[in-house]
Amino acid sequence: MTAVVHETEGLFGYIYCDFFQRQNKPHQDCHFTIRGGRWLQETGQYQLPVVVLMLSLPHPTQRAPTLLTPGMMENLFHEMGHAMHSMLGRTRYQHVTGTRCATDFAEVPSILMEYFASDYRVVSQFARHYETGQPLPKSMVARLCESKKVCGAADTQLQIFYAVLDQIYHSQPQNRSTTEILQEMQNKFYGLPYTPNTAWQQRFSHLIGYGAKYYSYLMSRAVASMVWKQCFVQDPLNREMGERYRREMLAHGGAKEPMQMVEGNE
Ligand SMILES: [Zn+2]
């Protein structure tokens, strides 16, 4: 359990760090809330949030500590974005605190953290060779970041295609099979053609879990990119910007319209 403490304001909450693999543990990185924050009228104080940050990292061996791949590190940052959303929420009610917000906004804090995970000024704060203590070379981080952009356009196209498909599946009844719809939309929105006699939509659980809200991935990515560019690209470790981001976005949880927050309205 890790306490989240602010330099001057004190204790903010607790993160239960369940980082390592074990038998029967779901192999999916995630964040969930044990106790949400809320204003307690009786005591006039804030009920501190308690959340879990769950990963499936390999255990250290006799020869080496746990070493994270860039993907594992990015996931850790991503889930930490969700956890800090819960930590920094200061809402009146528990059901709208932290990540309990509009789906359109839910992935903004976590995707924003992925930008931090790809920035040398941030990565150089902690990434060291475990034996020599050498920091990660700047050129290596630059190459890694460049490699993430490979097929970026195709990836965005794919997300648009998924989002459209999800909208149609959940709109008015269609007198045709989900596979026929898939075929039509894939040909219309995605560069690669549909493969006959396949029906992957039946295995893509997000089309059910998100139920017409799959587009929020793209929406969150766009907003996170805007926040990164406007507030952090100049100086990712800027204290004032961090406080502003906390005050104007994270503190509100789901108690304020995301659009109002994005536009910076009071
Ligand atoms: Zn997420």
Automatic annotation (TrEMBL):
Binds 1 zinc ion. Residues 3-263 form the Peptidase M3A/M3B catalytic domain. GO terms for cellular component: mitochondrion. Its cofactor is Zn(2+). One of its GO terms (biological process) is peptide metabolic process. Keywords: Hydrolase, Metal-binding, Metalloprotease, Protease, Zinc. GO terms for molecular function: metal ion binding; metalloendopeptidase activity. Belongs to the peptidase M3 family. This is Mitochondrial intermediate peptidase-like. The lineage of its organism: Eukaryota, Metazoa, Chordata, Craniata, Vertebrata.
